[in-house]
Write a structure and sequence with these properties.
The chain has 243 residues and is α/β, with parallel strands linked by helices. It has nine helices and ten strands.
């Protein structure tokens, strides 16, 4: 369970997240949607401990993200929207580096590297320097590093960036399979069709405030929409606040 409880985040005078309260059940595939500057990335940074809330608390599996920081971070696999990778390392060296951070055994790192490189079809770049890889391959490698320690929760900001259609299809199946095994997944995206196809729960945020939260059926019913359509819900909620 992921819980935001009355979370505020200011950057100077700018209110980036406005009294966010949100509960995401274990085993959910949750999509957070909103316009540019809505507070999506800030919410993710707060959840992963990369930023501290001005007020309020965030708990993961009943652990406080601030007070139990190291224990909580071990639960996460995280892919940011603008990742930094060590360009002079090879892909294989990066996997060993990440495995070392999580204090994994050599056998585990080797096994997970083979498994994930096979899954994302990047075995041929094992010994290539990251700086020479394309955007899409770098994204696949980054996702692989996020799963080397078998996280309980996976967080990704704009999940399909740089991926080709075939890779997107495989990645969607990969995420659904992980959810079926009990993983909780939190994605932030502008891509409404992808979110609607992939996610089972949604949050719509704008100007730092959560406007809706729940299943598509719950959100559509609350808005009295004629059909269950995520785009219709999104535009109805955000249109009046766009100015």
């Amino acid at each position: 369970m992921i819980e935001f409880k009355n979370v505020l985040k200011y950057y100077g005078d700018l209110l980036a997240v406005d009294n966010l309260s949100l509960a995401i059940p274990t085993g959910s595939l949750f999509g957070l949607l909103g316009p540019n500057g809505a507070g999506k990335t800030t919410s993710i940074r707060l959840l992963t401990g990369l930023a501290k809330p001005t007020a309020g608390t965030i708990c993961v599996n009943n652990l406080d993200i601030e007070h139990d920081s190291l224990e909580v971070k071990r639960l996460f696999g995280y892919v940011p929207d603008q990742p930094y990778l060590y360009d002079k390392l090879t892909a294989l060296e990066l996997m060993w580096f990440v495995g070392g951070i999580y204090q994994l055994s050599n056998e585990t790192v080797s096994r997970k590297t083979d498994e994930l490189f096979d899954l994302f079809e990047i075995q041929d770049i094992r010994n290539k320097r990251i700086g020479n890889l394309s955007l899409g391959i770098r994204q696949k490698l980054l996702i692989a590093t996020a799963f080397v320690h078998e996280p309980k929760i996976f967080v990704i900001d704009e999940p399909m960036v740089g991926l080709d259609p075939y890779s997107i299809d495989r990645f969607k199946k990969f995420l659904r399979d992980r959810v079926s095994l009990g993983m909780t997944i939190f994605i932030s995206t502008h891509n409404i069709p992808v979110a609607e196809e992939l996610c089972d729960r949604f949050g719509i945020i704008h100007k730092g405030k959560l406007l809706a939260n729940g299943t598509l059926s719950e959100i559509s019913s609350r808005l009295q929409l004629d059909n269950e359509n995520l785009a219709d819900a999104y535009f109805q909620l955000t249109r009046e606040l766009q100015s």
